[in-house]
TrEMBL record, chains A, B:
Keywords from the UniProt entry: Acyltransferase, Cytoplasm, Lipid biosynthesis, Lipid metabolism, Phospholipid biosynthesis, Phospholipid metabolism, Transferase
Top EC class of this enzyme: transferase
Gene from which this protein is expressed: plsX
Pathway this chain belongs to: Lipid metabolism; phospholipid metabolism
GO cellular component labels: cytoplasm
Main location: cytoplasm
Organism: Sphingomonas piscis
UniProt name for this protein: Phosphate acyltransferase
Length: 351, 351
């Protein structure tokens, strides 16, 4: 019997459903034999795919779910089908303690809404946020949140995101006091929305937190490698993340076109290929797959809808690493600390 | 006497002041002998730089300005010094008809505030927007606005940006009916803020406009080459633009590192160099320099603070091209058309 993290898998989400999800689980298992998977989906479809991954069988429990959530489904409709859908049942397994985390490649809005309803937000958190790691030129990736869970955010939300993102950086990147910045359209104190200015003022005062707040940053600094945690509202965060993905593809497309433009550059390409493959690995979104909903009483990981088996395996590793590092407890401690100080400061101010 | 567009130059703005601005003007003049420049700045500093560009002298009129606007200055303070600063006086020259357009590399917020106060917005425009061309994989660049002039925008603002951006695309890119999309965090109708949903509804109905509204787009589609005009609020637009710039630099930095990683890849780089130079040209922000404030009764072009002489020359070409294409009149016609139809529709609804 496996003794490692028990991961619930929503087999029906994502562009290629059970095929990618089970191939991803098989890939993850090759690297970590201790994993156990609770696979939720249409039993016949899951069994058919499982036949292609015999090694997986001993570490899988299939749970039949009669329905699934489509990518077009409104979150408000999805939540009514929590008990009958692969997504809802995978989340339910985390709630009931049968799984330590759930991974889904399905409809983000529905996943968020169902997770929030089933798991509830942690004490001190008004809204959970979607966090992921961005590649940088530096020694490690950069944590960015929110990536699209909350279209509009107030100052309190942003401060809570900073606390959660820092706990994530401390856990996953092993940085004891992460450097946190707020994403803005300029670095001067007077720039940006009122929410950003207020959040900056709150964070500047919160020097008892295990993070180093360092003001505002701009979109062109995200991949420089000198920020550990970038905090933003879900609208801007989603735009920034997708623009970065699109631009990376744009530049590599231009590069491919340049290499094909002459016989000479084709020869140059052939020579440089091993080095260029490193670049390809660095930029492959599958290597950065797995965004986490932070701030819930339970771990939910969102895999990209178009992720390949390697990407799904990475999303599973994100989930298992957070289970092992007990991130939910860590965030809880930071939040307790934050509230205790905020309360003491309010008491002092009132005297 | 030159007969082409008369361009007012704020010589004191930007990271390298008169040096870059005059070298840029000299460069622009080599390509277009008809240009005339009204150069505003500290007379001694401007004369000293002009000595390095003898060919420029016959086409330059220097106007001494005793002061300049710093990059840290608040817009609310800057507007009080409109009559004594190089930026304020360059804008004033457009207002008074001494110049056809002004180019500044100075403080964007101050430039926006001073321009708005001096030139006023066009009838039918509540807020001007900053527009620029983004490089794409397609046959032509893509117009994007707003890039930072308005932190928050309502639906009416976004519709007006669509009208202005389309007039810009018709003029500068020669597209008779530009394909317009709203930047959002998903393409489904229910995605995004209320402002975006309302703007989409208004644009969907406005089929009499010389544009083809085509719904929402996401950050990863901006450089695909299948959109002519991308409309967004100034906060998201600025984040997207800067993230794209940062990511392009990130990928080329990784590429440089890859090429240096072995002797073999160094040889490959040497062979591919001519092809890679094309890529460099395509991505150089100086080749896309020159953002335009659309919606004012006068043309103001913002050059990047760090632009080199080639970049400044491109900003000057953006200005002269818009003067020649009479873009202010074109936008005015589209707005009149839009308001006439909106009025007729309201009348019909009231009957």
């Amino acid at each position: 019997m496996p003794t490692g993290p028990r991961i619930a898998i929503d087999a029906m989400g994502g562009d290629s459903g059970p095929a990618a999800m089970l191939a991803g689980a098989a890939r993850a298992l090759r690297k970590d034999k201790t994993l156990h998977f609770l696979v939720f989906g249409d039993e016949a479809a899951v069994r058919a795919e499982l036949a292609n991954h015999k090694t997986l069988t001993p570490n899988v429990t299939i749970v039949h779910s009669p329905e699934s959530i489509s990518s077009e489904e409104k979150p408000s409709q999805a939540i009514r089908r929590a008990r009958t859908t692969s997504m809802g049942m995978a989340i339910g397994a985390v709630k009931d303690g049968h799984a330590d985390a759930a991974v889904s490649a399905g409809n983000t809005g529905a996943l968020m809404a169902m997770s929030k309803l089933a798991l509830r937000t942690m004490p001190g958190i008004d809204r959970p946020a979607l966090a992921a790691l961005l590649p940088t030129m530096g020694e490690h990736d950069c944590v960015m949140l929110d990536l699209g869970a909350n279209t509009e955010c107030d100052a309190q939300n942003l401060v809570q995101f900073a606390v959660m993102g820092s706990a994530y950086a401390r856990t996953v990147l092993s940085i004891s006091k992460p450097r946190v910045k707020l994403l803005n359209i300029g670095t001067e104190e007077l720039k940006g929305t009122d929410e950003l200015k207020e959040a900056a003022a709150l964070l500047r005062d919160a020097n008892y937190l295990p993070l180093k707040f360092d003001g505002f940053t701009e979109g062109d600094q995200l991949s420089r490698g000198n920020i550990d945690v970038v905090v933003t509202d879900g609208f801007s965060g989603n735009i920034a993340l997708k623009t970065a993905e699109g631009t990376a593809r744009f530049v590599t497309d231009l590069l491919r076109r340049a290499f094909k433009s002459s016989l000479r550059s084709k020869a140059g390409f052939a020579l440089s290929k091993p080095a260029l493959n490193l670049l390809k690995v660095h930029l492959d979104p599958n290597n950065h797959n797995g965004a986490v909903f932070l701030g819930l009483n339970g771990l939910i990981v969102k895999s990209h809808g178009g992720a390949n088996p390697k990407g799904v395996a990475n999303a599973i590793f994100v989930a298992s690493s957070m289970v092992r590092n007990d991130i939910t407890r860590r965030i809880g401690e930071d939040l307790d600390n934050f509230r205790a100080h905020a309360f003491a400061a309010a008491e002092q101010a009132a005297q």
